[in-house]
Write a structure and sequence with these properties.
heterodimer; A: 265 residues; alpha/beta; Rossmann fold; 2 domains; 5-stranded parallel sheet; 5 strands; B: 431 residues; alpha+beta; Cytochrome-c3 Hydrogenase, chain B; 14 strands; 18% strand; oxidoreductase (chain B)
Chain lengths: 265, 431
Amino acid sequence: MARPRIAVHKFSSCDGCQLAFLNLGEALLELSEQVEILHFLEAGMNDPATPVDIAFVEGSLSTPDELERIQQVRANSRYLVTLGACATSGGLQALRNLEGRHDEWRDAIYAQPEYIQTLKEVRPIASAVKVDLELWGCPVNSDQVLAAVRALLFGVSPVDDRDRVCLECKRQQAVCVMVTQGRPCMGPVTRTGCGALCPRFGRDCYGCFGPSETAQTDTLAQRFAGLGLVPDAIARRFLMINSQAPAFLQTGRVFFHTPAGDQDD
Amino acid sequence: MTSRRIRIDVPALTRVEGEGSLRLEVRDGQLIDLGLSIFEPPRYFEKFLEGRDASEVVDIVARICGICPVAYQISALNALESLAGEPLTDWARSMRRVFYCGEWLQSHALHIHLLALPDFLGFDDAVSMAARHPDAVKRGLRLQGLGNALIKLFGGRSVHPVGARLGGFHHAPSPDDVTAIVEKLKAAQPEARDLTHFCAGLSLPDDPQSFICVALHHPDGYAMESGDIRTSEGLTLKAHQFEQHFHEHHKPDSTALWSDLDGQPYLTGPLARLNLNHAQLPAFLQQRLNEIGLSLPSHNMFHSLLARAIEIEWVLHEAIERLSKYLLPPSAHTPLTLTEGVGYGMSEAPRGLLWHRYALGQDGLIKAARIVPPTSQNQARIEADLHRSLTAFGLDQDAEALRLRAEQVIRNYDPCISCATHFLTLEKHER
């Protein structure tokens, strides 16, 4: 039987999610015996147009060129898997969508803005093509990636763990930072996958794995207000790594750019 | 009269997406035009940092680069902490340095083994190289893994670690975890020594050229997470003086801004650091430099590979020294009160100087941000190097040979674009 064919594509991103492969250590060499890696620029494989069984896509869509390129990736792939927050929800750089001042920002940074080709808004991959599996996280970790490869290759549905970080804290016996320290923790509405890293370090979760199932974001926002956060600070909790994920965007928008005591504007 | 016009296009790159290209124009055997253009989709970090709380900056700027998030975190913390009245504890300052050692270790090991060695050993990529040189590749992956483990000790994870904060860290590692990693670091020292000898045994092109070196310098030791700027021309600058001498400009064919030092291209990164600060290396590394016959300062850019290997040995030594004396602190951070104003900060990212400036308002929110990464600083130098190196290599060489040499030259700088092994495709026009 031929080895399954894999590609890793990069769009607008920091390259950090691809490291889920490159940080595998010797397991990377084992993986490359089990599957055939045909396109993965950071690892040195360059064949972007070849047909593959699984295409992993890192990064969001932020240029006209990327909108065209993702169509080609989709056409050449049996399964398309988004790798991390940028590909899945637009990622941190989608914060620029909130302000809607793309042209002004571009002109402020670049002396010759006429050479800068960017879309007005940063978009997740699923806004342009069908996505078969979304891997959340900023960054994703190696276990998520390997589990996805195995599940897809064995033809079973990958487990979509949408539990809240709170449940992981309980499993890890981590002390709740909201209850004991009054910290504005995003754990109650954030999907697990990180191993509850932040609470275990005594700090509040900042939502880098995106919304969990049945995320009660409005209730949590009220709780944050009770902890003394001003409206704009509440907005910033939801509008961070995954600002375009609908559950976070909807609640964040309510409080965005509203200073304390002035909620009309 | 023959006129050969060669165009080298970069079709798809990591970190330099889409349309990076190298344009060469050769006429009558003379290189009359050379342009390295880079198109990386702008992500507008400096703009969306505006309005964020000072405490959020460390988690935001990490996302600029997945390969060197610690560098972005430390430069940002240096800038913002300069606005605080309270000093950091000795523990926090020392452990920041160890945290940073982890990043140099993983980044240098990744660069040498996955990106650079296939060039010198004649392979397309590290995976195919592993079939012939399994021990060398596995050694590299182990060193990279150890760097990641050191970042995780303080940050929870190696990519976008969550441990660093204003005033220190969120969490102090347990003495047991520290003892365990010290054993691993010690066990890696002979491997790192072998790596240096292995790199020194490679046949590297010998093509010296003159260039200005820029690196941080600190009187107490080999500069990494703090220090003043020092140049090979004798200039010494504090972080707030950076903009008086370093200027960025926007070339029409690029989305990266280009820097110069008083109008001149300059080098930042491992070879610049080693050239300026080698006297501060410990005795065993002075001896190593003698063993491998590397006399400093070196003006052969291919010695950047050796500089990375030497720095891998140095970070192992430095981390062992500091962690061997580890004591659990009463608190991992000092509460800080930041005052309104402009804060400047810098540090030595694995690939060179990383400078940040933030204007902080009375409300504790960021009003303006400016970040100058190492790759944009090296760009003018890369172009000058290509101009010289390709001419010396022979412009009459065939297009494929020119492309390969151009890639090797660019990779010496470990720019984010070097992540792609075969990133240049050559289009040749003759007319």
